[in-house]
Amino acid sequence: MKIAAFLEKHQPSIISCRRADTLQAAATLLYSNRIGAMPVVDSNGKLVGVLSERDIVSALSQRPHEVLKLYVRDVMSSPPVTAHLDEDMCAAQRRMMHHKFRHLPVVDDAGNLKGMLSIRDALEVELRDKELEAAVLRDNVISARYS
């Protein structure tokens, strides 16, 4: 399945933050929306990074006395690794596994942010594909028995 097709059916609104946001405000946004990562965008809405729970935990462990003074720009992952709308979901899944990410921003040809994928999204698509493949094989075996 293409990422564009998946996002058309499953993508809720994109929750993002800015580089100048405090880390505390961004953490609150992650928590209140029950998400594990979000894109960081500039004033034009262009993707400039990703902020994840892992980035926040890393900041807490490495700079515990400064954490309330930190900004998103201090801990975000940049430049972001992305997926493209025209890619297959399995390509995005492989990229997430390779980089050990659980979330991946999706961009179009112009680099505009179009969505966020999670590893759960990719695994759900893979599971549906495998279930469909199993059903087709089962039907082939059944029809071969009665032919």
Explain what you see.
The protein has a single domain, classed as CBS-domain. Strands 1-2-3 form a 3-stranded mixed beta sheet. Strands 4-5-6 form a 3-stranded mixed beta sheet. Helix 5 crosses helix 6. 48% of the residues lie in helices and 18% in strands. The protein has helices at residues 3-10, 23-33, 53-62, 72-75, 89-99, 119-145, and strands at residues 17-18, 37-41, 47-52, 83-84, 103-107, 113-118. The chain has 6 helices and 6 strands. The chain starts with a helix and ends with a helix. The chain has 147 residues and is of the alpha/beta class.
Core attributes:
CBS-domain, 147 residues, alpha/beta, 6 strands, 3-stranded mixed β-sheet, elongated, 18% strand
Judging by the overall fold, what is the CATH architecture? Roll
Q: Give the CATH topology.
A: CBS-domain
Number of domains: 1
Report how far apart the termini are. Answer: 33 Å
Question: What does the radius of gyration come to?
Answer: 19 Å
- Indicate the CATH class: Alpha Beta
Strand order of the largest sheet: 1-2-3
Q: Could you give the order of the helices and strands? A: HEHEEHHEHEEH
